[in-house]
Write a structure and sequence with these properties.
Nucleotidyltransferase, domain 5, five-stranded mixed β-sheet, globular, 2 domains, alpha/beta
């Protein structure tokens, strides 16, 4: 993060973290109670109906009693880091200086641990305010290899989660993400390529390219987050961490013969060693 007392100029620190210099000096205003309530509903509706755009969300929210316009809904969606999922030809400009990589998983059979890791970030509502959850999963086993709960969408949090997964579980052949700015940032891309892994990115708004992580979000939100009202960031980190531990160690997953994901990951390890 930015160190205002460091000898390195703040401008250069911002460049290294792939964030705008204006962001360093920005002091956010508290989010209103009305916006927090709307964001919670937008999150739940988006999870159930990911193709709903700002207009549809506006209409649904208005039927539920929210006095809200389309532009306001779009602003809240950007703040939450979500967008409607459908193919949109050339509708979004790339972040200046950020390279976007091709999607490598089309028609690929994923059957080995450490063959493909997937990362994503999701919005997490609290009793007051919100945080973001970033997770690294092994696609073959559905095991959550590392995660981070943070108050911003900066690239450093995704890098920390990925580096923790590297230390614990080795190096994957492919790392797949969406085109979020935290994943297209140079510091994140370098952390992947420096390990000689291939970088893969979903198409902009492409349907179900990262469906493996989307299923994880559905599980975590319906079985943990929506049942809780975290009073603090520390409580959110602790409670989500406990749930992910149980998800890995104790919750049967239908995609891996009803084994817990960690058991599936460990069962596939001998085959990986023999192949090496």
């Amino acid at each position: 993060m930015i160190d205002r007392n460091h000898t390195l100029p703040i401008k250069r620190q911002a460049e290294l973290l792939s964030i705008g210099r204006s962001t360093v000096y920005y002091r956010p205003r508290p989010v209103s109670d009305g916006d927090l309530q709307a964001m919670r509903r937008i999150d739940a509706i988006h999870l159930a109906h990911p193709t709903a755009g700002a207009r549809m969300l506006r209409d649904i929210l208005r039927r539920e009693g929210f006095a809200i316009g389309r532009r306001h809904v779009a602003t809240l969606m950007r703040r939450m880091g979500i967008e409607a999922i459908y193919r949109k030809p050339r509708t979004s400009d790339k972040h200046p200086g950020h390279k976007v990589f091709p999607y490598l998983l089309r028609n690929v059979v994923i059957e080995r641990v450490n063959q493909v890791w997937a990362l994503d970030t999701t919005y997490v509502p609290m009793a007051r305010g919100f945080v973001y959850l970033t997770a690294v999963i092994d696609v073959a086993s559905r095991c959550v290899l590392a995660h981070r709960v943070a108050t911003t969408l900066e690239a450093c949090h995704a890098v920390e989660a990925l580096e923790q997964a590297f230390v614990r579980y080795g190096t994957p052949e492919i790392v797949n993400t969406d085109q979020g700015s935290q994943f297209t940032a140079e510091v994140f891309v370098d952390s992947v390529l420096d390990r000689r892994s291939e970088m893969s990115m979903d198409g902009r708004g492409a349907w179900r390219d990262n469906v493996f992580v989307e299923r994880l979000w559905r599980t975590i939100k319906y079985e943990e987050i929506y049942l809780k009202a975290y009073d603090s960031v520390a409580e959110a980190r602790l409670s989500i961490g406990r749930f992910i531990d149980w998800y890995n160690q104790g919750r049967p997953h239908s995609a891996v013969d009803s084994k817990p994901p960690m058991a599936a990951y460990q069962a596939l390890l001998p085959a990986l060693k023999l192949a090496a």
